[in-house]
Amino acid sequence: MTDGWFALYPPVGGGRGAYSPMVAELRDHGHCHLPALAGRDNRFAESAAVRFTDLADDLWTQLEAEFGPGRDPGGLVLFGFSMGALIATEMAARLQQRGTAARGLVVAGCPPPHLLAGHALHTLEDAALTAALAAQGTVPRVVLDDPGLLSMMLPVWRADCAAVASHPRRPVVLDCPVHALGGTEDPLVREADLTVWPRLGGAGSSVRMVPGDHAAVLDRQDLMAAAVLASADRSSPTEARW
After folding, report:
1. What pTM does this model have?
2. What strands lie across the sheet with 206-210, from one edge to the other?
3. Pairwise CA distance, residues 120 & 166, whole Å
4. Which of 68, 134, 174, 241 would you call most buried, defined as having the most Cβ atoms within 10 angstroms of its Cβ?
5. pLDDT tens for the chain, residues 1 to 242
6. CB neighbours of 237 closer than 8 A, spacing ≥ 6?
């Protein structure tokens, strides 16, 4: 059992439904904060942020609104995959600056912020951008096969990629445990970089590699949910339970 709650941040182009399988499980254990990003869900008419600082400011405002009686910031476990991992890390850092460490941070398919590569996907032409994201295996096939959906998603993808490219890439050191998950064959995230994550977190931090590439990590929502729940459970060492 846990007495924590959860905040989940999506990958490039993702919205509130990005983690539907794991959210269904997590909701049996605590409140799930699923922020609304501009350009998708109920904010579809808004332009997606192209600067990471603007994106983070928006999402921090939404997270702050969750704090209150019965929802202790110190019981929060933050999670994100790829771009979402960068956002979750930034939220954990802001929470710590506020004076309260999160209970835990779980990151998947992403290097530590200061080790980000300098990819500029947002500068590619539409076809090249689509091909690059499709090659990562994380773009739903239904979007790639539907010209209408594709035209709607391209501005969001481009903005998200620009936001990632604008990340300040400063080292982050956190008091809370950090648990990292990555694929052994992920061409975008080196295993050597993933192993740095535990050095940036508090006691009990860990890293776990699973067979597969970038998309394979996102497909393991069962394992991601297990990591989040283990991070929320203070009864025994996290790394022994996921």
Report:
1. 0.95
2. 32-33, 5-9, 76-81, 104-108, 178-183, 206-210
3. 9
4. 174
5. 467 899 999 999 999 999 999 999 999 999 999 999 999 999 999 999 999 999 999 999 999 999 987 789 999 999 999 999 999 999 999 999 999 999 999 999 999 999 998 778 999 999 999 999 999 998 888 999 999 999 999 999 999 999 999 999 999 999 999 999 999 999 999 999 999 999 999 999 999 999 999 999 999 999 999 999 999 997 655 554 56
6. 204
Q: Write the DSSP string, 42-63.
A: GGTTSPPPSSHHHHHHHHHHHH
Q: How many CB atoms lie within 10 A of CB 74?
A: 12
Residue 184 token pair: 């052994």
**Nearest by Cα to 181 from 116, 134, 225, 137:** 225
- Structural domain that includes position 38: 5-235
HSE toward the beta carbon, residue 203, CA cutoff 13 A: 3
CATH number of the domain that 119 lies in? 3.40.50.1820
Number of helical H runs and strand E runs in the chain: 9, 6
- Give how many domains the chain has, as a whole number: 1
**Which residues face 43 on adjacent strands?**
none
